[in-house]
Each structure stands twice: as C-alpha cells, then as structure tokens.
Amino acid sequence: MEQVKCECGHVNPHGTVLCEACGKVLDEQEEKKSQLLDMRYEGSARRSQTYNKTIVDKIWNFFSSVKVGVWLIVLTLIASILGTILPQEMYINLPPEVYYEQEYGWFGKMYYQLGFHDLYGSWWYLLLIAMIGVSLVICSLDRVIPLYKALKAQRVTRNEGFLKRQRVFGTTSNFSDHDLKLVKEHLKAKRYQIREENGDLLAEKGRFSRWGPYVNHIGLIIFLFGGMLRFIPGMYVNEDLWVREGETALVPETGEQFYLKNNQFILQTYDKNKDKTFEEAIERAGQVVKNYQSNVELYQKKSESLPGEEPKLEKVKEYKVRVNHPLTFDGYSIFQSSYRSELNSMTFSLTNKQTNQSVGDLTISLVNPKSHYDLGNGYSVEIIEYFPDFEFDKNKEPSTKSRVPNNPAFVFRMISPEKPEGETSFVAIKQTIEPFGENTYKMSFKGIETKNVSGFTVRKDSSLWAIILGGIIFMIGVVQGAYWNHRRIWIQRKNGQVWIAAHTNKNWYGLKQEIEACIENTELNIPVDQLQAEKEEQEGA
Amino acid sequence: MKKRRLVIRTIILLILGAAVVYSLYSNFAMDNKQKVAVNDTAPDFVLTDMQGNKHRLSDYRGQGVFLNFWGTWCPPCKKEMPYINNEYNQFKDQGVQVLSVDIQESELAVNKFIDRYELDFPVMIDSEKEVMTAYDVDQLPATFLIDKNGKVVKYYTGELTENMVRKFMEKIKP
Known about the structure:
The structure holds two protein chains of two kinds. By secondary structure, chain A is of the alpha+beta class. Helices cover 31% and strands 32% of the residues of chain A. In chain A, helix 3 packs antiparallel against helix 5. The longest helix of chain A has 31 residues, at 123-153. Chain A is elongated and about 135 Å long. The mean pLDDT of chain B is 85. Chain B folds into two domains: 1-33; 46-172, Glutaredoxin, CATH 3.40.30. Chain B is built from five helices and seven strands; from the N terminus they run αβββαβαβαββα. The longest helix of chain B is centred in the first third of the chain and has 30 residues, at 2-31. By secondary structure, chain B is α/β, with parallel strands linked by helices. In chain B, helix 2 crosses helix 5 (162-172). Classes of the chains: A alpha+beta, B alpha/beta. At the A-B interface, helix 2, helix 5 and strand 15 of A face helix 1, helix 3 and helix 4 of B.
C-alpha cells in the first residue's frame, strides 16, 4: 500500500488522518468535517482500519475493534451474573441432575440442562475470557504502536489548519520578543519540556500518561496468564483431606511423597467463667468456639515404594494446624478447614437375661474389629456379621451403606457353659433381634467411644506471583493514566502574529489555568476554548 | 512491508490461539482425567491377601490379570462377585488370574464377605487407598483387564454380567 507524503516533506503510513510531523489534515473526509480536530490517537493510522486483505487481517481487525471488545466484556458480565442465580455444582451435595429439579423445579432443570451448573468451568465461558484476552492484546498493539510513532515524529512547527482547529486557540498581533521569552520561562518553571525551531515553540509535559491504558492492559494480560497457569498440572492444587486421630494419610497431589499423621484434634470453646469479658455474648450465643486445632506430623517418603507396600517414612516436622495458621511445606499449605466425630469403638457386656448378672465386658473396634472375644470361664463372643453402616437393603436383607461406622450393627454368637453351641443375636443401635428364639444371654450396650476426624484443605498455588504482578502493573497503569495529563502548548509565529494552541488528553480546565498563568504580565491574548465558545453561542441563540 | 505485517500478525495470532487452545484443552482434560488409560502399562503394586500371601502385579507377567476394585457396601459388587468366582474357576488353569482389591475396609467385614460368597480367588485390602489412587478409581466396582505383557486392555466401571466376565477373561487369556 502506498504511503502518503505530506507537503511538509514527512512520509506517513497509509490511512493517516493527521500528518505525524506537522499535523496537516491528510484525510479529505476529516478535512470537510466540523471545526475541531479529532485528536484521538493523534490522528495516526490505526492499522486495523487500513488493511483488510487476507483472512489473518480479517481476524486481526475483528479483535482490534473496541466495539467487539466491549461486547465481549458485556457478554462475559451477563454470563457471570447468570452463574450466580443458583448455586454452582461445587457447592451442592446432591448429584446435580437431582438437585436442581428437586430444589428449583422446571427452572432448575432448565438451568442444569443449559449447563449453567458449572458455568465458570464451561468451555464457552473460558472462550469468552480468552477472547477478551486476545482482544486486549490486539487492540493495544494496534493503537499503541501508531500512537508512539506519531508522538515521536511530531515537529515543533505545525500546519496552520492543525493549530486553528485545536480546542484551545488564540492569536495576538501586538507582541514583543520579551513577552515570548517571559512565557518560555514561565513554562519552564511549570516543568514543561520545551523544543524550539525557527522561532516556534512546543511545550510538552506528561507524555508518559498516554501509556497508562496500555500498561494497564499489560497488567490484565499477565493476570489472565496467571489464570491460565492454573491449568498446568501441578501448578494449582485444592483438595480435601480427612485424617482420623492417630492415623496417617497420603497427602493428595504431592506425587505420593508426603504423608500426614493426625495426633489429636482439639476443639476449644470460650468459657463463661474464665473469659468474663465475653460473658454476655456467650450467654446469648450459647457455645462459641475459640479454637479449631489439629496437632499433626508431616512425613516424607524416604525410598521408592510400590502402592500397597509399607513406605519408609521420615518425619519432616510437627505442627499445630489452626485456622489461618496452615502447615506449609514445599509450596503446599495444609489448612484446618473442618472436623467431624466418628464412632470408634463400642463396649458391650455379656449379661444373663434372668439374673441381669454380667459375665464380662468386651470392647469392639468399629474400624478394625476382631472376630473372637474370650471372656474366660467358658464364656466367649464371636462376631458372625458386621455392618458398619447398617440398613435393610431392597431385598430386606441386612447390609451396609458405606464403610464408615455411622450406624454399626452386629450378628453375635454368644457362647456360655450353658449354651456351648452358642446363641445368635442381632444387635444394632437401640435394636435387638433374636432370630432363633429366646436367648439366655444378651449383649447389653455399655458405652461408645468416638474419635475426631480432622478435615484439611491441601492447597498449592504457583500462579499467585503472576496474579500479584499483574495486579500491581494494572494499578501502575491506572495511576499513570489517571493522575497525569499529557499537555502540549504550541506558540508559533504565523503571518506576523503569535498563535497559541493547546491540547490535553483530559482536564481542560487545568490546562487553561496553566496557560493563563504563563502568559500573565504579557501582551498576549488568552486563547479561547473553542468548544465552550461554540456551546455558549448555541445556547445564546 | 506488507509481507512483514502478515507474518507478524500471523505469529501473534498463532501464539494467542495456542494459549487459548491449551487452556481449553487442559480444562477439558482435567475434567476427564484418567491416570491409567488403555494401552498404558498397569501401575505395579504389592498387596497382601487374606491368607497372608503377597501379590505383586508384575509377578503375573505372562498371565492375564482381571483386576477388580470393590467394597462390601456396594450392591453391584455383591452381584458380580459370584460370576467372577465361577469364571475364575473356569479360567484359572488357562492363565487368567483374578486380583480382587477391597477399598479400605476391616478384615472382619471382608472375611465375612468371602465366607458368605465362597470366593476362591485372592482378595486383598487396600488399607491406605494407595492402589486405588494409583489407578484413579472413583466409582465401584471398577475392573481393569491387564494382558500378559502388563498392558491395560480395558477399563470398565459398573456391574458385570457373567457373560461379560467370560468375554473379559477370554480377552486376556494368554
């Protein structure tokens, strides 16, 4: 594509509206338009709007459009809102195909069928976010490069048309060189960078504020990149881990390297008598928890072992895991997140039903019960069946719902000198069945012991640095663009007059104030805000 | 000039496209992750059965292994156990071994179960869920068919019929 040579001699890329060097209007349509110039992107040739040849250019131009970018953001916002109407899949404890219809009727069913139950993990939501990312990169590249080139190529002496059509503009016929010198000094004192050419002057400051939005976009892109990092295996771990007191468990997602032993779970509450300050609050709220704590030991595997083989473990450290005080190692953090109480053992007494005399007690572990219990003197008990989580199944047969001892039930054979063959008894919580007629002995329930199970969250996030860096750069960009203004003041000699024109990317009031201050005590006329003048004229008419 | 522009744009679009595709792919792959896929070498393990005999998977090279994960609380497991037992007795002399792995239950519960269903094949308890983790088993029952070279031929979750058990064993017969 040809380039455009301006009458000032500068060669501009095709599509340029205002000559990069002198500011002459090159685009005929712009020439015919209203009085004031559109100074966006310095009238530089935004590439997207210029070339539209190949498929690559077409894709590029699509993403380069701010309109497309805004639409992508709006669509993502609407989708994000939709995801908050009903709870997401990860926060419900029923199968999603059941939950949504049961809780919310036809609306819930539709919600599930449309795939909104896992909205933030759906491919189309991720695609929207990804497209915003692509749009950010291309939009920025397409604007920042031409803008940079135009600002770099600008000359001091500007085209008359360019100056006339600036928003702030004014002329003075009677002036002295002394005035110009004074203004220059004032501008210097206001920290303007001053360039001079053939008696013309350009004062400029805060150009770096123009890069604010692009710095901001770089931050956003790094932020999105951080989000993408989470998809790399091993970069992001967020798993639950339940460990019973006294037991050791493999820490998930650590490459089968680390084991956690839970020595004790501690639950402390505020004591009304000890913590006098809180007496009233405790009375009102009942029990108030002071501390959730698990005393744990971390072990690392010493040598390679096969699954199922007893691993050789070496103690790494001991720690008291409390809320907000996680155990940290090797990039992982183990947080105290929950607890529950599980039945651990039950104690029975073998009792003669008639005399109510006990012949001995036995304690049965519910996690790993023995099958025989010898009570001496010819008395013993045998477990024939054990159902840790008892229920009658569809065929009305006793069975277990899970392996967790939530509702233990036993079939015992009780052997006594009177009944050496044994008597059979089915015992569940608050329930005894004697299937083969009246027994002489019974297993009377004596007590129950529970054990705590600590719930931990295992977390690792190796993408945080990118998120933090992205966030910091984002803020730098915001500050850069928001707290500084790019101001330019042209003071040029044209046709024996002095022309003053000025431009800023924002805060016109501040610019005008500054100009007024700079031309104080001189013969120079204060330039007019043409936009405001126009408005006043219209209102007046 | 025009060419350079095209090249630069193409490269940038390709990089961005690759990042997008990678993110979507890994998100999708994470949802359907399967540690042990067909044609992979089955992860080796050592477990002790209820008689106290150690079974190491790699010791069964040269034989087909029918690896079954189960629990006494799971109704379909109860249903398929007798079928597996029948077919085991048919195939054990033809080089097919059954390894039955219970997930983290008490010895008592497992022993009683074996007695009730009169199981002849070796049953072992994965007390630390390590083998289950290595095979990434989620739902029970789960069956892996491993051929004589130690390669996974098939992975199946759900209840088996006697016919299926027979076909499966036929498949891994050396």
